[in-house]
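REQUEST
  id: r-88c1
  op: predict_structure
  target: Ubiquinone biosynthesis accessory factor UbiT
  payload:
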Amino acid sequence: MIRIASAPHVARFALHGARIGIDRVDDAMIVLLAARRRLVAAVAPAKRALHVPVRDIVREAQVHERARRLAGRLNLPPASADHLMQTLVGDACQQQANEGATTEPERAPRSPLRLLPPPRYWRLPLSLVPASVRDAIAVRVLSRAVADSLDADDLSVVAHRRLGIEVTDLHLRWVLELRDGRLHRAGEPAEAVVHGTATDLLLLSSRQEDADTLFFQRRLKLTGDVELGLTVRNLLDRLPWDTLPLAVRIPLNRIARTLRDARAAHHATGAAS
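RESPONSE
  id: r-88c1
  status: 200
  body:
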């Protein structure tokens, strides 16, 4: 921390010098913004040629994550870096949209995935499936993935603890408890609950999105015992994806990728996701 002498004339001199330095930094940021916009101008026609939507959720998550890592190394608040990236990404998207409107009157072909209904429309069909069947399938898949990929020492820290999983857009909720190395449906209230959409929970499960990014962007929320929730999150980060059974890994990856692309297609056409 810089300590300023208490003498008024010294403090005024320090304030003046600091403001001059801040002005120079601000000038440099404007110059860098101009350079960034020139690069974005090259991105826009490339996206149109490839029929790629302006918004790329995966790419934006990577940009935010890289900024947060750099902020951490420089001892800066991650939230400040995230706000700056949100401004820059928003400016880039608006620039691309404006250039697309002025330079290409014809609309790019829309993805056929926009025809795939968002998960919230699956509530009615799922409600026709007996709850016992849904619960048994969910518990069996999760239990097999966890038991086959983590050893007993890893799992001991969450043994006999109750974790809830709520799929917000499907109105589904499970409370799970680890006993004897296997997950079981718990009859008591959850100690901690992870809330998220079907798409985001599947992206997390398939390791196409990391937990930190999803929680920071508030696409996943944690309520209840925060310590338990963070412990489970750390276990998920340590889950060796390549050791999961192929019968689980392949469909999980494909379903998550399809839902992610469908959501992007819905956003591109202005539909709710």
